[in-house]
Design the sequence.
């Protein structure tokens, strides 16, 4: 098991081997680790590894470089470049794996110090037909690769051969990341249970007069004490009308009796994200109107989840949910007009203003193509071991004068994480209370 990854080195070896299979012959892939990011002056944000690099190595130090070589005869080699051991730096800033342990523990073929990268890498690039990199917002690293190519070009008159193509290999890695292994699914189950417990704790600790940030602290406490030291994304703790701001993260207002509280929060465990939303009443009891909107959203979510199976698509799930929510909002008098027209227009989108879900994995909005068509419908057929969120919502801002006052200020989203199985689905979000009865019982028993 590689430290902090919860996965054996063999799984990372297999990924590198699967990736190399998909490389053209006589090519080299050069993948960079993340960099430390300054927060202010001489302090940094907690380090977050580049997820593509992490997926192929499990190696969690900044600045490293992975070179995957596929020779003309198909022979392959994986070579890591990492920070050298340095007693003084390690006393100040923490331990480094170093080159010897990188080979034994991470099972790369070779590891060199970053100080040797030019010397070791240039001969590996020279003579290849193609260089593969991840072109995704890392201009400094792309510049570095261009500069290595320029160095080789300087020697063409003495016979050096410069690779002719620079290819983006993100798609290869993203497709691999989209299909989870059973070990990855296990981690995603665990981080969901940890995050579900955090939502339970938030419900138990919520009371009018507390501040949103106090509930955020309860979530972070529960994540961290179970090994998910960092949230997968900034937690949204949105009381009352704040729920109608989709990415509300100020989390600095007092919670009011009679309001709902929307919490969208998930931990990150061994790099894998949970992304769970629950909405519940601050005082532990849904009002009549809150319960009606909540039940509508919940029923739509259950419909969508029940329809998940191989070959299903987000496009079809969106159609199911939009029909249901449009009909429901029409029945409540919130949408007015001709029902057939409203259904055809997907009129619920006035109040359900985001997508139904997204892939989930090492990133919260995970990588992987959605096969969106010209109408922006996501037509990719699901397959076993893909993981996604299902997160319908209804948001009726306080200032929406087009609806009866009694509905205004209600914002509800319910979000679960679901894996596709061979025959249907597995809901990974098993312990975050979701029905009105479950929520009211939990909150009643802890006041
Ligand atoms: N937490 C972000 C999202 O639900 O997509
Ligand atoms: Mn989500
Ligand atoms: Mn979310």
Sequence:
């Amino acid at each position: 098991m590689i430290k902090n990854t919860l996965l054996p080195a063999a799984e990372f070896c297999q990924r590198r081997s699967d990736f190399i299979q998909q490389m053209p012959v006589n090519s080299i892939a050069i993948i960079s680790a993340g960099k430390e990011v300054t927060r202010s002056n001489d302090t940094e944000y907690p380090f977050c590894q580049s997820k593509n690099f992490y997926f192929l190595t499990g190696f969690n130090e900044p600045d490293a470089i992975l070179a995957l070589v596929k020779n003309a005869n198909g022979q392959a080699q994986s070579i890591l470049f990492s920070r050298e051991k340095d007693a003084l730096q390690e006393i100040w800033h923490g331990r480094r794996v170093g080159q010897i342990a990188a080979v034994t523990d991470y099972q790369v073929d070779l590891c060199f110090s970053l100080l040797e990268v030019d010397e070791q890498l240039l001969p590996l690039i020279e003579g290849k037909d193609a260089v593969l990199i991840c072109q995704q917002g890392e201009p400094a690293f792309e510049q570095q690769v261009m500069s290595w190519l320029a160095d080789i070009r300087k020697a063409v008159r003495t016979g050096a051969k410069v690779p002719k193509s620079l290819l983006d290999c993100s798609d290869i890695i993203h497709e691999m990341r989209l299909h989870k292994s059973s070990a990855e699914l296990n981690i995603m189950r665990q981080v969901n249970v940890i995050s579900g417990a955090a939502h339970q704790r938030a419900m138990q600790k919520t009371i009018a007069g507390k501040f949103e940030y106090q509930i955020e602290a309860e979530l972070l406490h529960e994540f961290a004490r179970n090994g998910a030291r960092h949230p997968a994304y900034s937690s949204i703790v949105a009381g009352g009308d704040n729920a109608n701001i989709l990415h509300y993260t100020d989390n600095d207002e007092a919670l009011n009796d009679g309001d709902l509280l929307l919490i969208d929060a998930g931990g990150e465990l061994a790099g894998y994200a949970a992304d769970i939303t629950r909405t519940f009443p601050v005082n532990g009891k849904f009002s009549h109107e809150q319960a009606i909107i909540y039940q509508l959203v919940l029923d739509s979510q259950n419909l969508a989840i029940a329809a998940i199976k191989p070959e299903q698509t987000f496009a079809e799930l969106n159609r199911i949910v939009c029909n249901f929510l449009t009909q429901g909002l029409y029945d409540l008098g919130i949408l007015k007009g001709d029902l057939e027209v409203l259904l055809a227009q997907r009129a619920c989108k006035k109040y359900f203003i985001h997508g139904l879900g997204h892939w989930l994995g090492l990133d919260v909005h995970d990588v992987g193509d959605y096969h969106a068509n010209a109408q922006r419908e996501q037509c990719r057929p699901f397959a076993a071991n893909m993981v996604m969120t299902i997160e319908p919502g209804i948001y009726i801002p306080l200032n929406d004068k087009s609806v009866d006052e009694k509905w205004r200020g209600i914002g509800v989203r319910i979000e679960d994480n679901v894996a596709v199985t061979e025959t249907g689905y597995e809901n990974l979000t098993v312990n975050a209370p979701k029905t009105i009865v479950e929520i009211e019982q939990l909150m009643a028993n802890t006041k």
About this structure: The longest strand covers residues 76-82.
